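Q: A small favour: would you put together sequence and structure tokens for a protein?
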Amino acid sequence: MTPPVLGAVEIKRAVTPEVVFAAVRDALIAHAHGRTAVPTPLHLQFPDADGDCHVKAGWVTGMPEFTVKIAAGFYRNSAAGLPTNHGLVCVISTSTGQIRAVLDDQGLLTAWRTAAAGALVTHALARPDAATLAVFGTGEQARLQVEWLARLRRIGTVLVHGRSKDKARSLCETFTALGHHARPVSAHEAAAADMVITTTPATVPVLQARHVRAGAHVTGIGTDMPHKNELPAALFGRAALIATDDHQQCLEHGDFGHAVRAGSTAETSDTPVGLLLEGPVDRPDGAITVADLTGVGALDAALASAVLRELTPPAP
């Protein structure tokens, strides 16, 4: 039997943020406790088109499906009026190996699980009274990080830093329409916010470590391949707590690995994100905390299974 192909419209209609948050949180915790199978991601680069693609697979122990996901980002597309991100998820039975469904989500689930992971981690590690949020980047993920974090905590002011002043102003207008006080700022001012989230495909750091204030939290989202680099190595040296979504993957593909190779922090200095999501984080008010999120295939598997449950009618 031909497996169903489920599109982005169907997924948006059936899946709530609560479903996404629960799936991502549970998968991060399971991954921290070794209850997942996640092979090394496969990467392709297309420098002539300023594009890249990664293929990630994953399984959460006990789930009836595993997934193989293709996610591509082509960063000049916006100039041509095309979406930057594309992708699909293949959901496969762990009992028979048959394809249960193809989620032709056009990159939607990757965007949602990234937003949910960033929001969960930023909320858990930032000071309870932190209210000023800065985002580096002006694309879809910058917008989603603010929108999804706002579901978990009050955000007073949103600061936006981007290479394009026009895009930064446009994104601020979007945030203002959502009820936030938002304004475009310099990299220096953005780095000094209570909470900082970087969402760019940068290959050199987008902020300077000395501009991050005591008591701040920084989440790096965009570095998911060895050639990318958003956070400076020195920032990890200043951090009292370093969180990673996958230790080995962050060493090989993340900003944490750049910091280790630069000698700014030890290879054993990180804590799995999932452990920190299990309970309140004990952080001194003046501490700097940093999270490096490279995107774990087990999250894709957990979210795809949750989506399939929402879209598949129960057996009679």
Remarks:
- The first strand starts at residue 5 and ends at 7.
- The mean pLDDT is 95.
- The chain is about 35% helix and 25% strand.
